[in-house]
Structure formats: structure tokens, C-alpha cells
Recover the amino acids of this structure.
């Protein structure tokens, strides 16, 4: 299978749906909507919605019915990146090769664009597909999304990250921070795809194991790219972890061992797919993410 081609097809479908679910930039809220659209339509890889749609597909769901929930997950991801780039957080001026949202629209508008995307996510998840998915599955999936994005998931990881700056940390704390900050939303996406497709618990759990492993590998690769990646491919400067004196997998293990660890986690992830019949794309996606350059 041509995994990159399939990824592009998924990304195109998700981009078109995001465009539909985002409001038109007009009226008295025009400036905040422009900022929402700028960041939400700005060249993301769309990994999280892609995972949700693929798990839903291989568990027998109609992808169109799952699309609003997949877009909801991506809206929350977009809000997290807008807020993460703010001066009070990572203070990054560039994202995906373009000025960050606050650089383009100002800090207050960027903050509100992030807030509005978080609310729009839940509005979108519950709008179109209310009849196409079993209500109990939709409720469980949306609850998982709320949990994964909140204090015990992504936000929880972000506060651990902020509070670890300039402090000595250990590898277990670093891993726990990443499992929340980036892992929770990736795990939620995979499990939600299965839940929305009414899959049995064994499949939901296997999707969770797959995503937890690729989520951690994803972060380790991110740490490696910050040391050995190209700022052109990444669309942002490299070396920011060292500049901010941050502990990363590379500072604990070195570059080569970190790359090996990411490969090991990827192979664990692929093993957990054995309960699914049609696993070619997900295996390929895991391999792609491990060897990505952006
Ligand atoms: C501000 C509440 C709040 C949370 C921020 C996710 C996050 C939490 C911060 C992102 C920090 C970061 C750059 C982590 C590295 C890994 C990562 C999540 C990269 C961005 O995800 P991609 O590569 O992004 O899937 P694209 O650009 O493809 O959408």
C-alpha cells in the first residue's frame, strides 16, 4: 500500500470537512473567526483525525458519520497549539512554516481563537451525526475526548511541562508528562474510532495500546528532530529544547538510543494491531511517524 498517498487522501477529506465545520469569517466576530480558520486550516498532518477515521473504518463504521467527531478532535489539537505558542507558554513565533496565530492576529485574539475552537469542537462532535451513531457510543466517545483534553490529560501534561522548566526531572516523570500532553489525545482518537464503530472492548483496548506506543514514539521523534531535524521541513526553528534548558529523551539517552527506543515502541504498536483484520495502513502510518522529518 502507498501509505503516503492514503495519508494525503485522508488529509484532503479532513481539510474539506474542517473548512465546512468552521464558520465563515464574517460579521462582528470576523477577526476571531479569521484566526480560528488561519490555524485550523494551516497545513497540519491531521494525524489524530486520520487515526480516528481509520480505526472506525476497520471496525466497520461509516467514515462520514465519524467525520464531525474527527474534526472535533482536530479543533482541540489546533487550540492546544495556538495556546502552546503564546508568549506565556512556549513563546514560539513560527508554526508550520508560518507566523504563529498570536504573531499574526495579536495575543488576545489568538487566546480567544483557541477558546472558541475548544467550544466549537464539542458543538461539532454533537451536531451532524446525532442519528448516524448509537447515542451511547457518541456519549462515551465525547466523554473520552473531554477527559483526554482536560486536566488529567493534555492540559495536565502541559502544566507538568511548564512546571518542569529549569528543574531537574527524571525519565519516569518525563514519560508521564508526554503520555498526558501528547499521548492522551492520540490514544483518545484511536479508541474513539473503535467506540464510534461499536467495536468490542478488546478492539478498543488494542487501539489504545497501539496509540499509546505510537504517541510516545511520536514525542521521542519530536525530541530527536529538535536536535537533528531541519528547520525547513519542520517549519519552525530547531534547538529550542536545548535553548530552553529542557530535559528530553535525547538529553537522557542520547540521539541514537532515543531513535532505537522510538523504533521499539513502534514495533510494539504494530504487534497490538493483531486483533484487527485490515491493519496495513495503520502499520504503515506507525512506520511513517517513526521516520518522519516534520
Ligand atoms: C496549551 C493546553 C495546551 C496544551 C498544549 C499538544 C501540546 C499541549 C503542545 C504541543 C507541544 C509540542 C510541539 C509537542 C510536540 C509534539 C506535537 C504534539 C507536535 C504537534 O503535533 P503534530 O505534529 O502537529 O501532529 P500538526 O502540525 O501536524 O498538526
Amino acid at each position: 500500500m502507498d501509505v503516503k498517498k492514503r495519508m494525503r487522501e485522508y488529509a484532503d477529506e479532513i481539510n474539506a470537512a474542517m473548512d465546512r465545520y468552521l464558520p465563515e469569517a464574517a460579521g462582528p466576530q470576523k477577526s476571531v473567526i479569521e484566526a480560528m480558520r488561519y490555524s485550523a486550516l494551516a497545513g497540519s498532518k491531521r494525524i489524530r483525525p486520520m487515526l480516528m477515521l481509520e480505526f472506525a473504518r476497520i471496525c466497520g463504521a461509516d467514515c462520514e458519520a465519524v467525520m464531525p467527531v474527527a474534526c472535533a478532535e482536530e479543533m482541540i489539537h489546533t487550540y492546544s497549539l495556538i495556546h502552546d505558542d503564546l508568549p506565556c507558554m512556549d513563546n514560539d513565533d513560527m508554526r508550520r512554516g508560518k507566523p504563529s496565530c498570536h504573531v499574526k492576529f495579536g495575543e488576545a485574539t489568538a487566546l480567544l481563537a483557541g477558546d472558541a475552537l475548544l467550544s466549537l469542537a464539542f458543538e461539532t462532535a454533537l451536531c451532524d451525526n446525532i442519528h448516524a451513531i448509537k447515542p451511547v457510543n457518541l456519549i462515551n466517545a465525547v466523554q473520552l475526548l473531554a477527559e483526554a483534553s482536560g486536566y488529567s490529560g493534555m492540559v495536565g501534561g502541559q502544566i507538568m511541562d511548564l512546571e518542569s522548566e529549569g528543574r531537574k526531572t527524571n525519565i519516569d516523570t518525563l514519560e508521564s508528562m508526554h503520555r498526558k500532553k501528547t499521548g492522551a489525545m492520540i490514544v483518545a482518537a484511536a479508541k474513539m474510532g473503535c467506540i464510534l464503530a461499536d467495536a468490542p472492548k478488546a478492539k478498543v483496548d488494542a487501539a489504545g495500546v497501539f496509540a499509546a506506543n505510537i504517541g510516545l514514539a511520536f514525542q521521542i521523534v519530536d525530541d530527536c528532530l529538535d536536535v537533528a531535524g531541519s528547520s525547513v521541513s519542520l517549519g519552525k526553528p530547531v534547538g529550542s529544547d536545548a535553548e530552553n534548558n529542557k530535559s528530553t529523551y535525547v538529553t537522557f539517552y542520547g540521539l541514537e538510543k532515543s531513535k532505537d527506543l522510538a523504533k521499539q515502541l513502534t514495533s510494539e504498536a504494530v504487534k497490538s494491531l493483531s486483533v484487527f483484520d485490515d491493519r496495513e495502513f495503520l502499520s504503515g502510518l506507525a512506520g511513517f511517524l517513526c521516520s518522519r522529518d516534520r
